[in-house]
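Anyone have tokens for DUF4153 domain-containing protein? Sequence:
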Amino acid sequence: MEHNEIALEAQVSRKVMAARLAVGLVQGLLLYWLYAAGRDVAWPATAPYLMVPLLAVLLILPVLLVSSLGHLAPRQAVVWLLAALAVLLVLALHDVWRGVNNDPLLGDWNDKPVFSPSMLLVFFSCVFFFIAHALVLAGAQDGKRIASYNTYFEVAWKLAIQLLFSAFFVGALFLVLHMGATLFMLVKLNFLHKLLENSWFNVPVICTAFSCAMHVTDVRPSIVRGIRTLLLLLMSWILPVAVVLVTGFLCTLPFTGLTALWETRHATSVLLFTAAVLLVLINAAFQNGQAIVALPLRVGARTAAILILPVIMVGIYALGLRVMQYGWTADRVTAAACLLVASSYAIGYLWAAYQYDTWLQPLAVVNIFTSFLVLAVLLALFTPIADPARIGVHSQMARLAKGKIVAAKFDFRYLRFEGGRYGQAALEELKRSTGPDAALLQREAAAVQALDLKQRWRPPVRSTAPVSVVANMTVWPAGAQLPASFVAQKWEAMQDDRKPDCLTSKDGKCDAFILDVGGDGKQEVLLVANSYGSQGRLFAAGADGNWTVAATMSYRDTACKQVIEKLRKGEFNLADRPYKDLNVGGHRVEFEISATPEDECSKIK
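Reply: yep, here.
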């Protein structure tokens, strides 16, 4: 082992260090150039098929180059980097072509279009190239296409710790720089503070410092190995705790049923996260399969390997229910891909757990096989092969065509904001619809295309055209009417960000409840927007006749379906507060009852 370390230190020479620092500096300068172009909305930021690939390549390829220097022969490095470049270009160009980028990396400046990769693409590209780079480095080290599992283990964990500590080094460096700026500010010198406000300084420094940290951690493999050993040891002792908790959860399901689980609407993601935690902790105990492991950890790892499959099966069932009820969407396709990978782990780990004559040795084969599966799945998701947007749009359109969802309840916004070019094509098809619901489909498809929105959940641009408040409201109790002064009020002139969109936008919709909350015979209007996660606003008329927000209904109450349904049916009455308010010098102090939203909502029958 010492001979290998000496050889590595000889290989990673001063020339390699200089090359790595140069790569980091050039990366920083080019990234600043792109950042400045995006900030100023100048070329190439306005050319999507140039800006997105450039940014994706400059974020990832230099890191691969820095890590390859000193470990891959020049010919090997060139072949690998060219292959990585080709994959990055395919992923980035497809990201632009598909037209779905609700969460861009750079965002928009001054409400002008700035093209950049989606956060989803950047994240999964990092995952893809971390796995691929570890496979390439291990294969080069062993001189084989498929290296030994011990080599994969050493290379992958070393690379993970290098990246982690390099990020920590950059954060610590800027913490010290800001400390120095604060010290100089004490004596009225602000040059360092001004310097740290400039992106032309920060971006190159971040990239150069990151490359420097990658080099320092690379030439001290024994230190990295020591940190890895300590980290895995600590993580492995969390495994018995996780096993007890997951076992307890699975044992409660026959008694509690699955209904409560599905009502959370995020059961699949929680179950996937649980399976991922078990996988990481099992591998922390297993390591390279040669470590001496205490009996409690051996028992915990074998038990956890068995538990992953039932957890994934519950997740598959949860996703299946949502798909049967509402069809495929992009998120559900992504979740299905994650469940596919998790299922391969679960089946393989279950097989390994039943090999009693070995210490989970088959995990090595399972981990290697599944690494290649992850790469294949990610390539399929981020290319037209299995584009989640395409599958989601086709599923929703098929449900509409088969009558599984009525036209009045169809989610046209999904097609526009999450369907990309496939959704736009579907909207054009709906505008040419024929049949009994043709008028509705044509009108709604044209309306959603005309929305002045960049993202589905972003508030709409305030329209200067008159808005029909009555048309935007569903008034309760049925047959009631909004007060005439409420309808006639000039809501566009009201300077209050708390007013719902249904008062100022033709696209906003609200439930309007006519109440007499004060018990004085005067009407108040409670508006609850139809969009999820909106607070209710209680409007009352003042002495001057103007309606203003008098009180707010909390998120936890508007999110409770039972509350809204009871209000619509008129099944409520006025009740005094359990505790009176305090009047402190004319200031009212209210006491809020301590209870979780789930507890309060579950009391309603």
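The first strand starts at residue 473 and ends at 476.
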